[in-house]
Design brief:
Rossmann fold; binds magnesium ion; P-loop_NTPase; 42% helix; binds adenosine-5'-triphosphate; 12 helices; 7-stranded mixed sheet; alpha/beta; Chromosome partitioning protein ParA; 248 residues; single chain; DNA_Partitioning_ATPase
Length: 248
């Protein structure tokens, strides 16, 4: 099973939108997919029509005392499952910090799912958390949705500095541009030639598209909501690029 995390220090940059649509594209491509909504806000849980958990049990599950698989919900799409957000996720950092395994606790929580799924997508909350620090151990790729702006680049550099990654780990962190508006000069320039501070970026990018905002009104991924939309095709290309990346 491959594990892909959507992460950014910044909020509101398109992590949840990408998590849902990349998961659905991979699922349309025939892969059994599990999306784990690790953000207590529950945006991807909401879009997929899942039920936010509120159970006391989740503390036990996150600390590894009982199997996390008990919380898995089906979505309306076959072989596309959801591990929904839960209010107890607010305590996730404390739980991850507590564990004796050091920075491998998240990886251990994920491991049992590899029997059933070919791909796991992690929708992460914004911020520099213990979760963020453990992602590099747990995920094959960390995708960083990035709005083309100098402040986004600065946030990205800060995130890298905080994580203190080794060279090979750094290579698995891949920004991609989101909310691209081709009427803006900077956006056009950066798509063609991304700033060096971002390092290697994915080639595909997601345009600004109002269809994306509609996902949380109609509770469906773009492929089902607006199959012909530019944004749907953009996420599809992004998935194809990611698939190649994961196959390497
Ligand atoms: N390419 C896009 N075009 C138009 N709207 C977008 C695009 N990407 C994201 N949005 C909208 O921007 C808002 C934030 O997106 P999203 O929830 O995916 O970001 P996030 O990084 O997960 O946010 P948070 O940090 O709060 O978890 C949402 O209303 C979403 O519909
Ligand atoms: Mg989100």
């Amino acid at each position: 099973m491959k594990v892909v995390a959507l992460h950014n220090l910044k909020g509101g940059v398109g992590k949840s939108s990408a998590a849902v649509n990349l998961a659905r594209e991979a699922n349309r491509d025939g892969l059994p997919v599990l999306l784990w909504d690790l953000d207590a806000q529950g945006a991807s849980t909401w879009i997929l029509g899942g039920e936010n958990g509120m159970s006391r049990k989740v503390g036990k599950l996150l600390s590894g005392k009982s199997p996390l698989g008990e919380q898995v919900q089906h979505t309306p799409w076959e072989r596309f499952d959801l591990l929904p957000a839960d209010m107890r996720l607010r305590e996730l950092d404390r739980i991850l910090e507590d564990k004796a395994e050091g920075d491998k606790h998240l990886k251990r929580l994920i491991a049992p799912f590899s029997e059933e799924y070919a791909l796991m997508i992690l929708d992460c909350p914004p911020g520099l958390s213990t979760l963020a620090e453990q992602l590099i151990r747990a995920a094959d790729r960390i995708l960083v949705p990035t709005i083309p702006s100098p402040l986004s680049v600065q946030a990205f550099s800060r995130m890298l500095a905080h994580l203190e990654l080794k060279k090979r780990q750094r290579e698995r962190v891949l920004p991609f541009f989101n909310l691209v508006d081709r009427r803006r000069r900077l956006h056009c320039e950066w798509i063609d030639s991304p700033p060096e501070a971002l390092g290697r970026t994915l080639e595909n990018w997601i345009p600004y598209a109002s269809d994306i905002e509609r996902m949380s009104l109609e509770n469906r991924p773009l492929a089902d909501l607006a199959p012909r939309s530019r944004a749907t095709h953009a996420y599809r290309r992004l998935w194809q690029e990611l698939k190649t990346e994961l196959g390497e």
